[in-house]
């Protein structure tokens, strides 16, 4: 089906363009949400009549979106999840989790606005793009950790693998035990007894 876009649609086209899309996508998404009109002669004339108004509304919405994007761009969202020692999550962090974390932080976005290719399945940081408006984007950093302390360490760039922590703790314990049981340290200060002089 051919449609006339009433706003910019990502990976499809700009406002006013006539594009060919699948019927289901046109009916269930573009037409239903008011993002397009069927490309008939009557609708082409209708679009020409409302073009100036649509462009003015788009400029206004874009300006408001730029203010929102300025507030959230560069934010760091922390999501606490359980994970294995190797850092693999028991489950995953999805778009829904990111939307909920942003809402808890006072930012309201809808799920289609959050661009996440695949769910996050490991501890660490990931950049996520928020499409505040079809022409305005903001980037946030999502930090996934097992605790708030671990999240702070991830932000500082520290190695947070528990295996590394265990190795460091074992090395410290071994060094302390070595000092405690060092035979040189225990007997080093004692003078050796002088051999008894033989009587002639």
Automatic annotation (TrEMBL):
Residues 13-40 form the Ribosomal protein L9 domain. NCBIfam families: L9. Residues 176-200 are annotated as: Disordered. Residues 37-71 form a coiled coil. Binds to the 23S rRNA. One of its GO terms (biological process) is translation. This is Large ribosomal subunit protein bL9. Keywords: Coiled coil, Ribonucleoprotein, Ribosomal protein, RNA-binding, rRNA-binding. Transmembrane segments: none annotated. InterPro entries: Ribosomal_bL9 (IPR000244), Ribosomal_bL9/RNase_H1_N (IPR009027), Ribosomal_bL9_bac/chp (IPR020594), Ribosomal_bL9_C (IPR020069), Ribosomal_bL9_C_sf (IPR036791), Ribosomal_bL9_N (IPR020070), Ribosomal_bL9_N_sf (IPR036935). Belongs to the bacterial ribosomal protein bL9 family. It comes from Bradyrhizobium ivorense.
């Amino acid at each position: 089906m051919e449609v006339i876009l009433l706003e910019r649609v990502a990976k499809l086209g700009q406002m006013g363009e006539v594009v060919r899309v699948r019927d289901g996508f046109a009916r269930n998404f573009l037409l239903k949400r008011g993002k397009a009109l069927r490309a008939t002669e009557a609708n082409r004339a209708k679009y020409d009549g409302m073009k100036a108004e649509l462009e003015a509304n788009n400029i206004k919405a874009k300006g408001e979106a730029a203010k929102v994007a300025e507030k959230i761009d560069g934010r760091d969202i922390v999501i606490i999840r359980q994970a294995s020692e190797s850092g693999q999550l028991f489950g995953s962090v999805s778009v829904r989790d990111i939307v909920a974390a942003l809402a808890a932080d006072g930012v309201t976005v809808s799920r289609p606005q959050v661009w996440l290719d695949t769910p996050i399945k490991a501890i660490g940081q990931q950049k996520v793009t928020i499409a505040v408006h079809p022409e305005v984007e903001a980037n946030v950093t999502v930090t996934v950790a097992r605790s708030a302390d671990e999240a702070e360490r991830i932000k500082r760039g520290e190695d947070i693998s528990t295996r590394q922590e265990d190795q460091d703790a074992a090395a410290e314990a071994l060094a302390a035990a070595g000092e405690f049981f060092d035979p040189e340290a225990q007997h080093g200060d004692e003078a050796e007894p002088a051999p008894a002089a033989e009587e002639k």
